[in-house]
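ok trying this again, last paste got cut off
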Amino acid sequence: LVWTIIRPLWSWLGARLIGWYGPKHTMAIAVFVQIAYLTLILTINELHWPLWLICIVGSFCYGVYLMAFEVDFSKIKHSEHGGKELGYMQMFERLGAILGPVIGGLIATFIDPRFTIAIAIFVLCASLIPIFLSAEPVRQHQVVLVKGFPWRRHRRDIFVSSAFALENVVSITVWPLFLGIFVVTANTYAALGVLTAISTAVAFLAIFTIGRLIDDNYGKRLLNIGAYANAILHLSRIFVTSPVQALFVNVINEPLTAMYRMPFLKGRYDAADSVPGYRITYFMLIDMFLTVGNVIFWGSLMIIAMHVSDKAALQFAFIMGAALSLIITRQKFAALR
């Protein structure tokens, strides 16, 4: 809740940093703060950092980096073949998602979990090099304006984007947590790493094809099929009790996620193009309004965990994930019509 409640402040500050310094320089700032965040986690046992401090720092680096990344990509992508470009981006993400969990899981299991954080810090430093091989994609020294933003035309974008982001949290954060505590209890780090790598490899094979289909005007159909199927898959997570079942769910989940995620992002990036002068404001407002959904989501889980059980709270999150998947289908992005 601390991570979430502080987020609007960081959204506002991040938008101003992006407007003044550009998204690439803002990503660099966020990376350096993220290194500090990981250092706090790395030394928490020895120095006893308060969790609220770690949450405030983490909320800044992840929120600001994501907003800067979205502004950057939305500016440089091309509308006519944005699906293919999204495919390339997702393939590189998935490549990291295959290598990271396997290497990190093995190191955490057989050496020490803290070594994975040290390696992450090194990778983050190295990631700054390619960022600055090209110029800033947007004009610098901009003043970010809210007055005049076409609320009526984009209010649905903001609402559905909140559901999209929260559903992502259920898949990426809650699901591995559930598996690590209640399903995969032996060699947890290594097992979760292998599960993630196998399922991500399946998605890797499907992403490029999905990207081409989006450019061929099948985006809305892919989004609806993927989101409806994903809602059913979320409900099935409640009944997973073995690593084999978890692997089955993971393998199905990855291509389904790509089916709705890639068209959704394509539609949202094109929507950002449709508000000249308000691109940064568009992503800032999406990030700010996500706070409302996050407070409801995590507050509900906290209440259930306190009065019922931790397992019931995580299982309820899967029910919410199913509902959020259905909300995603309510998008009205012009690029997907």
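PB: full thing came through this time. The chain has a mean pLDDT of 87.
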